[in-house]
Amino acid sequence: MAIQFTYFGIHLAFLLPPILILGWLAIRRDRAWWGVRPLSGLGIMIALAVVYTTPFTNRLIPVGVWWYGDGAVLATVWYTPIEEYIFFVLQPILTALWLFQVGPTADRSLAIPRIHRLLGVAGGLAIAVIGWALLDTTATYYLGWLLLWVGPVLALQWGFGSTYLWTVRRPLLVAIAVPTLYLWLVDRIAIELGVWVISDAYTTGYALFGLPIEEALFFLVTNLFVVQGITMYVWLLDRIGAGSAWPSASPRLPTGSDDR
């Protein structure tokens, strides 16, 4: 007799093990980010993820953009399963702990060209506008809401630090790509097991490695939020705290060395 996989089972099997491993490595590795700065940045990202994603899921689930298999969830709050809210917390932790291993940093002033800020804001807002336009078509409904949802956040992040993000683009790419590829795999497994089901009606039908393009894009942009947000947060505190008594981001390094 086959045993049905649950959403909580997905957390136990695929999210908690890498979180524990990466957390142990972050504590043990001298070159990994650890301390007040990165951990407080993670705390902020978790809070923002819960606050910002809750209206998004509770808008799309009752419409039928996706739903959950029978017996796959324990209970719901509003329209969203409690396991989904737990995921809002676990994904930033997983992605951040991998980011801590990479630690993308560069010695760059907070002063960046105004045109870079304007282009960053314009890029994010353009994504939101495209999303708004896609809402009129049923097949692009999920994609439209996703782009509309991500656009304002990207506008804020790119407007603040697009120049710095470009400076650290190579380690940043590694920090984003690895958890994104892993979560694509987890999402594909969960869909195959019937833990959740993505609507054919509200999606374009295009797939990436067998995963609906909308789902692949969701994990990409949410990891982008976390990685960019924490990276710029640490950069900001580094610049503010330069030459001050601000607590070190990595107390294991010798005094006077890079505090990350």
Topology:
Elements lengths: L6 H22 L7 H25 L5 E3 L7 E2 L2 E2 H21 L11 H21 L6 H27 L1 H24 L3 E3 L8 E2 L2 E2 H29 L19
Antiparallel strand pairs: 1-4, 2-3, 5-6
Helix pairs in contact: 1-3, 2-3, 2-7, 3-6, 3-7, 4-5, 5-7, 6-7
Highlighted features:
single chain; 260 residues; mainly alpha; two-stranded antiparallel sheet; two-stranded antiparallel ribbon; 6 strands; 5% strand; disordered C terminus; Lycopene_cyclase_dom; Lycopene cyclase domain protein; transmembrane
Gyration radius over CA: 19 Å
Strand content: 5-15%
Number of helices: 7
Given as residue ranges, the uncertain stretches (5+ residues, pLDDT < 50) are 243-260
Broad structural category:
mainly alpha
Explain what you see.
The structure is a single chain. The chain has one domain (7-241). It contains seven helices and six strands. With 260 residues, the chain is mainly alpha-helical. Helix 3 (82-102) packs antiparallel against helix 6 (169-192) and helix 3 (82-102) packs across helix 7. The N and C termini lie far apart (51 Å). Helices cover 65% and strands 5% of the residues. It has helices at 7-28, 36-60, 82-102, 114-134, 141-167, 169-192, 213-241; strands at 66-68, 76-77, 80-81, 196-198, 207-208, 211-212. It has a two-stranded antiparallel ribbon. Strands 2-3 form a two-stranded antiparallel sheet. A two-stranded antiparallel sheet has the order 5-6. One of its GO terms (cellular component) is membrane.
